Amino acid sequence: MTAELKHLDDVVSQSLAHQRKSGTELRTFITTMNGALNVNAGPDALEQLARDIEERFGITMGLGAMVDDESFRPWLDEAKASIDPFYWDRYKKLLHKNGLPQDVITTTDELTDRILGRLGNPGLDEKWDRRGMVVGHVQSGKTANYTGLICKAADAGYRLIVVIAGIHNNLRNQTQERIDEGFIVP
To answer: Is the separation of the CB atoms in 23 and 59 below 8 Å?
Structure first.
């Protein structure tokens, strides 16, 4: 780490002692301070710095909000013991390998369980109709969230999973690559 990058790390770390930031807020602040301090570090160095700081300070992720209808019947808690988490365990290892903080991985695990538990039970022989949507800011973890959900849905017995990923080819291709990395490629 260069002396300039170390100075940027010190400035950003000191600010976190007084105010917690989300992952997106942290990256925005690092970029701002990079320019203000004339460090001129590249995007890869800034991302690595953000990940290092997240690891040191344990940046967290909230659980978000959900809306249920009156016909909602929980099923996952009862079925979870019989579900082999093959795809989820593989994806969790990838998240660790990619340097996500443990708290973010734990929250993703909890959140995807909450979402999966609100989908229809694939083990039932009756018809059901459930839909959902993931909404979030840019770089807020949407793809990681629904890739985790895809893994857990496959583990639970879903045989068909449809992802609608936007109207622009470059974003659809990026989403496909990340889903392939998290779900298909071992």
So the answer is: yes
Specify the DSSP class assigned to residue 180: I
For 113, other C-beta atoms within 10 Å of its C-beta total: 17
**Residue 156, both tokens:** 């639970």
Number of other residues whose CB lies within 10 A of the CB of residue 159: 7
All structural domains of the chain with their residue ranges: 3-57, 76-184
Distance CA 106, CA 114 (A): 13
Q: How far apart are CA 84 and CA 137, in angstroms?
A: 32
Instruction: Give the model confidence (pLDDT) of 149-185 as tens digits.
Output: 999 999 999 999 988 877 888 888 888 999 999 998 7
Mapped onto helix, strand or coil, the DSSP state of residue 7 is helix
Find out whether 99 and 48 touch, Cβ atoms under 8 Å: no
Backbone angles phi, psi at 100, to 5 degrees: -70, 140
Tell me the C-alpha distance between 144 and 142, whole Å.
6
Residue 63 confidence (pLDDT): 60
What pTM was estimated for this model as a whole?
0.65
